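DUF397 domain-containing protein
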Amino acid sequence: MHTYDWQKSTYSGDASNCVYVAATPDGTIHLRESDTPDTILITAPTPLHALIRTLKTTPH
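Tokens:
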């Protein structure tokens, strides 16, 4: 089991449902949600950046 330096997303604020992010030495990005910390999504920086950019530009 790897130990990652998890950081709480700044978008989570003080809410109880938080998203945590960890960058790994191999360059992948790991994401988890505080309610299900054993479920980890793994992606690369480029697709994650594209997702965030799309979400920021999509009207609510």
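The mean pLDDT is 88.
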